[in-house]
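COURSE: Structural Biology Practicum
ASSIGNMENT: Worksheet 4, Part C
STUDENT ID: 0417
INSTRUCTIONS: Below are two proteins. For each, the amino acid sequence is given first, followed by its structure token string. Answer the questions at the end about the second protein only.

PROTEIN I
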Amino acid sequence: MSAKSAKSIRKGNVTTSKASNKRTQVAPDGLSVEAQKGKARARVRAFVFSVFAVLSGVMASGIWGVDGKFSFWVDKVGGTEVSFTINVGLIWLALTLVFAVMAVRQFFNGAAFRWRRAIGLAAPLLVFGLLARLLDGTTANLTVFLTNTLSFAIPVGIGAIAGIVAERSGFLNIAVEGKLLVGALVGSVVSSITGVAFLGPIGGAISGALISLFLAILGLRYKVDQIIAGTVINIGAVGITSVIFQRILQPYREFNNPVNIDPIRIPLLSDIPVIGPILFSLSPYFYIALALVLFFTYMIFKTRWGLRLRSSGELPSAAGTVGVDVIKLRYRAMLIAGLLAGFAGTFISLGGTGGFAENSSAGKGFIALAAVIFGAWNPIYAFGAALTFGMASSAASLLAGLGVKFPPQILGSVPYVVTIIVVAGLIGRVRGPASAGQPYDQG
């Protein structure tokens, strides 16, 4: 072992020892410093949940007896429709009880309470309650609302997995937006030229991988600041795709006339009344996204590859001492992340939108990064966050489409406000991989 490696290991041991000593310092009440901080954060969360419970109770009392009108497509979209009404006050009363239970459990269970999961369960009910109140008697079709929610979550959810894989390895992957945009463009062009549906997603995935490789070379070989490099790629992607769209795709529309990947109906399951048109008549992208969530959750947390990936993002010096080639692992993680992000981008242009449009990613890559943080770098939680974002976006679109006199941007901003609160640590601790974004010398 080289002197440099030994010095690095000693430094790592000292750092770990200091951090361990800091965590194990005992306060007068018998709790460690870290346990005290966790208890304080739990009390703050309990207070926040109790405030939401009070506000929901006030809302329920103020609109008791007001009915919300909704409908579902029974057999297929545009087919037989069934309508129903529900007391909006009951929805807010249920929200009051949910937030009250969350506050009580958070107060008594402390840091052991899984508050992210609780927020994930309460958020859809909160969005639905706001939607019912704002509609004010206007009938809304929930089949369209829910299918739009799931469709929105496809590029965001897959993009979030791309961010998780890269950052778990120790590389800050903020260029997801640029990869989505380029993937959408390349996917549309490849599909238009070849006339073969499945070649579009393959072309988009390859383009994302190439961009990701370029970003990895900048960050790993030349030690360029990963945030700056990712920002440059995002800005460059917007400029390059805009020029190509205006100079080539608009004059020569045959290059932007792809074979759309239409929704599929799963036999038998799609015939289930109400549920079938919502869950089993969707784009193949959605089912692929679900498979990717389960696959990468297993790979990251249950396999040796996942252990090496996480150790490279947390303490690469320790991973290197046991024979892990951290640099090579990060290159591979970035290639996987690029494939995922480029593939996700192709949904934007091939998922029934009729081709590529200028700046069509519309910030979904940045929303994916917010889902990564909100989901604590866990694919399942991140996809749940993507669904929450999708529900808020779908609600805003629905309100605008029905002509409801309420700024839809306010409702659409709710998930972002919650994410800012989470990132700021006001209701809990959010900590990503310790070495993400830090240059590493293999030695």
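PROTEIN II
(use this one for the questions)
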Amino acid sequence: MTRALSLCLLLTATASQAADVSSLIFYDYTHDATEGGTADGAFNMARGYVTVTGAPSENVSYKLQVDAGMLKSYTLKSTGLGDFVDTDGDTVGVNAYSLSGSDAGFFMYLKNACIDLSTPYGKWTLGMQGMNMFNVQEATFGNRFLEKPLMDTRGFSSSADLGVGFGREFGLVKTSVLYTNGTGYKKAEADKYKKLSVQVAAGETALSKKDGWNAGVVYSMEPTSADYTTSVMGLFGGWAGMGLRAGFEFDSKTVGAATDVTSTILGFYGDYKLNFAPGVAIFGSMDIYDPDTDADADNNETTVLAGVKWAPYKGVVIAPNLRTTTFEASDLKAKTLYRINFEFKV
């Protein structure tokens, strides 16, 4: 019911006044070549977005966005609620009677429902809004239809949350501070603690659209109890020019408990347009994930992504690619996926 209401709100906003409406769809065909993996390939509708933006006045603008993804599995509870696992691997609580037990299908989230208030001192953002922890890194990679940002993939931060944000620019330097629930956009607040997120970035923060350079730092902290706090810190940088776009990031997450656990991510990514083949580019990325830097066990994971993308028409991108994950632990086998990813933008 809430998902249908979200869509109604979007349609109402569109009809009530002039607004910009856009949609984005991620679609793929994946063959699992891992030893013991899926024998045959499958088509997948990975993600779908509908976004409405508008500006009722010079100092006020808004953004409404719904995000649809496939539910992979769920387990029903006797209370009538089910813990559902969605495309991102996140568990969400849903009324079990609203879905079929044999076919979970797609589930729709209200990802953004916020208003921007521009003042002489900076911009305030109120409501469900995009986080400031990896939006610059995501734009530097510039291939969201292939992979989620590294922090998102490893659960270092949600991509959106409910709260209040403030941003201000000082020449080349852009700053952003958010105070949010900390549970992300798929769950309601579960405790009294809130999350503080800070971003300081210099240079061009949208390298997927403009040439230039950027560098910056992000930090977040959220108490998990009266005694412990979970914190995340990230360093990033990127450069774009002459058809090349490249970036790196290093992220660290410490979960406070009786014994702190620190996880790290080191990532590199790049994209290069071929001058002799209009609309064609090659891309690649590599990241190393360590789930516990203090553990004696060999637990690192290395993921490599490489491929070619082709944009034959405006709004359409086709990208055959190979994705493989290897494990430092000798008893774990490498995971290999052959994929053809599609992006449709309207």
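ANSWER KEY EXCERPT:
Q1: Residues 2-16 form the longest helix (15 residues).
Q2: Residues 2-345 form a domain with the Porin fold (CATH 2.40.160.10).
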